[in-house]
Structures are given as C-alpha cells and as structure tokens.
C-alpha cells in the first residue's frame, strides 16, 4: 500500500507520465484487488471453520455437562495439591453447596476430622497408583455420609501430574444391595439344603420297608431269648428258695431234675450271647440310619467303603429279592469323609440300577470294588453294573443336571444323581455313568484312600 501511495504521488507530481505508466498501474491495481479477494475468502473460510469448531465444542461441553449432571456418584476434579477445580451436581446435592463456593477449597475441608488423614493418604498414594474402594466420610447436608472412594491421577500430554479425579459412591446404596444379595444367597442356600434333605428323605423312605424287616429279625431274636431267660430265672429263683428253706440234698436233686435246671444253665451262655448279638445288630442298623439321615456336617473320619456298600445293597435288595447279585468285594476299603453321605450316594446308584433292571427276564446287578493308583494317588473305586436297557445317548450328558430324570412323573425327583455328584466332588472324588458295550449301564465311584494307610 505504501508503494501505491508513492506511485500516486508521482502521478500527481508529473501528470505527463500517466500515459506512459497506465498499463503498469492497471496491473498493479488488479493484483491488489486479487490479493484482497483471496484474503477475504480466507477470512470467510476461517470464520466458517471457527463456527464449526465452536459448535462442536459447545456440543461436547453440553454432553459433558449432561453426563456429569446425570451421575449419581460424587465426582470431584482437583489439582495436584488437592484444591477443588470442578464438581458435579451429585456433589452439590450431597454437600448442600454450589460449585462456585466449592471451587478453590481444599478437598480435605469436605471431610470430618477423623477422615482427613485417610483422604490425605489417598491423595499421596494416587500419585503412584489408582486408589480403589477406600471407605471414607464426607460432610453431607444431613450429616456425615460414608462413601466408597476411587481416586485416579490426571496427567497432561507430556505425562506430568496435573490433577486428581475422585469418584465416590454412597455406601448406603452398596450396603443395601449387598444385604439384598446376602439375603437372596441365604434363601437360595436354604432352598438347596431343603432340596438335598428332601431327596435324602425320599431315598430313606424307599428303605423303610427293608429296614423295618431288618430290625424285626434281631428284635424278635432278643425278644424270644428274653422270654426264655425269664422262664429260667423263675426256675432258678424257686430252686434257690428251696435251698434257703433247708431242703435235703435228695429233695434239691429231685427239684433240679423236675425243672431241668442243668439244661437251663447250659443254655444261659448261648441265650446271653444271642441277645447281645441281636442288640449289636440293632445298634448297627440304627447308627447307619442316623448317619444317613443326619443333616449335620461333622468332620471327615475314616470309614469302610465295603461296609457302606454292603449295607446299602442289603437295604435296597430287601424289596427286590428277584435280582441276581454278583459281588466282588474285598474285606475292607478304608476311605475318609462322611460315611452317611457316601452311603446316600451308593444307595442312589444301586436304586437306579435296580429300577433299570425291573421287568428284565434275568435281572443281574454286579458290584465290585478295589483300589488302584490314579495319577500317582492311591484311589478307591466302586463299580455298579446292571443288564438293563442302558441310557439313551441324548440323556447321557444330562444325567447329573438338577431335576433331570428319565423316570415317569412321580417316580423320581431328578435330584438324586445331581446331589450325589456334589457329595462325591466335596470328597475329592469322581462319579461317572456310561453304557456298557453289551447293554446296561455302569456307574463308577472314585474316592481318595484314607491317608492313614489302613484298610480296615
């Protein structure tokens, strides 16, 4: 522009030169006008870009503000010294203070005295790593409010700490949710225990007839022996009364022969031994029933797997005398755990096998047991086989699912195998069922051997 003014001055001073420089002046003016048009176009483009950026910035700001306002958790942004820079609406509502009055304050001023040291420790620790779920208290509009605090560091683009972001959730909501979750879990656990006990009682009910018969035999034996002992006691009392009254030797011998006291005295030992044997048998049956039906979880103790299997087999087959049983059992197999629970498992397996072979022309049930080395650990095994129709391939993967049963409605709860699987797993063992190649099914129970190296 200064060149243009100088050029104009030259024209004014020497009008004669206008004609000679007219073409040059016109080109200069055209160049100036072109530059001004380009500058104006650039200004317009810049203005449009600025408006677009402002619109995006305003939209982002509105979005950020709406997110902050919608948060139910307390959100506080501080600088690296702990001075508040920004808060959300939840913080304003909790403290009863507007953001303008909070900005610039130290964050610790929002805490009661007993929580300030905890907060200062959080602000120190957050420089090294984020702080998660720190219990702390803030001064609320209606009193102290417990919070679960989360602190994260805020860095600038060069990685320098410039501030701290703090989010806090009132523990009242968390505690309510936690209490509800605990209550639901307790109800679920109670329902599970009731289902387990219900299945136990269902299994026990199937044994009542057999057990009643089993108890009746030794009780009848004891009852008969006691009647005989009473008769012998009456004779002995009469004989001793005669001795006491001073009867002669001949009279006592005659009385002894008439009462057959020699035979009675000879029978006393066998009667007493038989009575004790019957009483011991009753006690064993009662103990087995007590262990089987008990709901208490006692400590794990050694038990004889063979005795458990024999007892379960004896009870079940009382109601199915037509079954041909083939046994290959050692004298003893010592395991460790809850014998009543393992008894329940074996009862379920035998009962399922007996149910499967009902109606077969020649029902056969095989039961074998032993011990073997499995993955370097000595393991007890019990195998129960039947010659029934086997299990459908589609049903095999679901045998241990709760409430799954192949029995007709009213004949099974669908819980027996599921509960048995859980019991065996709790004992550190395995339970599996598969079809036999020649028909029927095989149930295999694996249990850890008792660590005491005893077999009895």
From TrEMBL:
The keyword Metal-binding does not apply. It is an enzyme of class 2 (transferase). Its EC number is 2.7.13.3. Residues 210-451 form the Histidine kinase domain. It comes from the Bacteria. The keyword Amino-acid biosynthesis does not apply. SUPFAM superfamilies: ATPase domain of HSP90 chaperone/DNA topoisomerase II/histidine kinase, Homodimeric domain of signal transducing histidine kinase, PYP-like sensor domain (PAS domain). Gene3D superfamilies: 1.10.287.130, Histidine kinase-like ATPase, C-terminal domain, PAS domain. One of its GO terms (molecular function) is ATP binding. It catalyses: ATP + protein L-histidine = ADP + protein N-phospho-L-histidine. InterPro entries: HATPase_C_sf (IPR036890), HATPase_dom (IPR003594), His_kinase_dom (IPR005467), HisK_dim/P_dom (IPR003661), HisK_dim/P_sf (IPR036097), PAS (IPR000014), PAS-like_dom_sf (IPR035965), PAS_fold (IPR013767). Residues 60-130 form the PAS domain. Residues 36-63, 171-201 form a coiled coil. Keywords: ATP-binding, Coiled coil, Kinase, Nucleotide-binding, Phosphoprotein, Transferase, Two-component regulatory system. This is histidine kinase. It comes from Sessilibacter corallicola.
